[in-house]
Give the backbone structure.
Amino acid sequence: MKTNIDNYDFSGKKALIRVDFNVPLNDKFEVTDNTRISASLPTIKKVLNGGGSVILMSHLGRPKNGYEDKFSLKHIISEVEKLIGQSIKFAPDCIGKEAKELSENLKPGEVLMLENLRFYASETKGDLDFTEKLAKLGDVYVNDAFGTAHRAHASTTIIAQFFPNDKMFGYLIEKEIFSVSKVLKEGVAPITAIVGGAKVSSKIIIIEQLLDKVNNIIIGGGMAYTFAKAQGGTIGSSLVELDFLDTALDILSKAKSKNVTILLPEDTLAADKFSEEADTQICDTKNITDGWMGMDIGEKAIASFTDCIVNSKTILWNGPVGVFEMNKFEKGTKAIALAVAEATKKGAFTLVGGGDSVAAVNKFNLANQVSHVSTGGGAMLEYLEGKELPGIAAILN
Ligand code: AMP
């Protein structure tokens, strides 16, 4: 059997766990959202309860070159201690003498956190010497940082080669992989993808992938107007990518030949300016008043999208269907979120990930009413595009 976190004996072992503790801090350096720390607890607890010790590795922010106080992981020590429920040790440099001594003296049940890996440019470069120094701190490598799995960095990918028989995913990454597989490989029909967001250009690869895997694709958000224009509609001053009109038509004809239903918004909530103070009116999406812009889907679109969603058994949601950050234009995205929650209640498997739809389910407090909300924006997008993520391949191969 292949090594995994459930069958591995951690007793007496020092587990180097790559976590994603890249959490937001306020101006007093307090953690304002500890979701990412909480999400890593099952993996940390598994090692500690199995008689091992834990060495946490993470990045925080984007330091340019070398130490920068505002990006020090020392700021989050108390939050990590609070959530794990015990005091932790801290190595003020992720490699070097002190880190080595602290790791050598680490006892079963203890936790050591290393300083920000990205204080070394070698981390993002994947430098082998640096990676080897990190690797020497532990006996086993666990990758639980899905958000950086699409990067071939020292701690996310390169390090795995130093642990040919002692490398594995943590529970968080396992869940992300399992969720994508539940949708794209083992999805139960009807399978519906909701693809929103600003631009066709950033979602084109995903849509192409989905055409072979799903029954319905709901298209909303700014992208919908490129489709409407391509079909001969007038779209006022809505967001449009004129270079992608042919692409939009190509998607529609491919969908037809593959028997995939594409649902576009029949009507639109249009605004006279990109602002909460704008005047609004409902227009046909293909007949938007000159000078007005589509900011959200209209009532007819809400009804038809909702009907499709609540009757689906597998759902993937990527990207909002309107400018939901402004309350005036949140209604469509909120309706989608509620419909996805309702489908989940009826037994559908629902994955929200890659793009601003994660922020949307959080805004509407529905994150715990869907099957899985992905923690990795860019990583999830690339994974859904069918790319092999280096951090995942390094464990599997
Ligand atoms: P993405 O990161 O691709 O999921 O795109 C999310 C962004 O798309 C959000 O910031 C939304 O405000 C934006 N968006 C959604 N609908 C529209 C629209 N009709 N016009 C302009 N931007 C939109």
Remarks:
- The radius of gyration is 23 Å.
- The mean pLDDT is 95.
- Residues 197-198, 202, 221-222, 239, 294-295, 319-320, 322-323, 325, 355-356 surround adenosine monophosphate (CB under 6 Å).
- Residues 188 and 344 are 13 Å apart (CA to CA).
